[in-house]
Amino acid sequence: MFEVEISRIDPLRNLIKALSVIVEEGTFIMNEAQVKLLAMDPSHVAMVDFELPSEFFDKYKCEGEPRLSINIKEFLKFLDRVDRDEDVWINLNEEKARLIINCRRGGHNRRFEMPILEPLDEEVPQPKIFFKAKARIITNSLKMAIRDADLVSEHVKVAVEGETLKISATGDMGSASSEWEKGSDDLIELKSEEDSSATFTLSYLNEIVNAAGNSSEVATVELSTDMPIKMDFELPRGKLVYYLAPCIGV
To answer: Which segments in the chain show pLDDT lower than 50?
Structure first.
């Protein structure tokens, strides 16, 4: 049995949108303490590690450890139909293999049902990467740098050189770069064991940062040379972490 109640839909809707930018279908694992999702995009280029504690919701009931496999993009379409001033109940009906979304405002009730999927066979392993550099930065500043790079190229280089974080791109239309020196207003923290850099597909980074930025004000970026990047978007409650594989030879 799994059922939650929430009076403000926007925080949940924004987080599901952040998942949907890379995950089409995913299996949520629930227990009495939290909801968890560890999933990869279909091309296995990006991964998301997501957790929401029971305290995120106004009411939370869970018996056992049910698994909920759904099409996340379709789930988001239903959540987009919920008005901001509606109270929402979401529950799993395992007998009917349906996820049920009830909305209420005053005496008006609305109800949606969507099918749940067969549990996904693929088990996603936790990445084991030793990062050599770490930067904690204001999410909007990171978002602006990624959007700048998107003007000129399909790829972006992220680097920590000395005491500077750099994001840069070069293409046929020109170049764009952003640099934050250690101690600058938007760069909260910078640590480095050695200079590190890697190049990534901009379309992935752009979608991830734009979507996650709706829920997070600060992001922690970790990288090593030509290794996957880790982006931890700080939430008031919960966990939203992405891993993105680099482009080698670009």
So the answer is: none
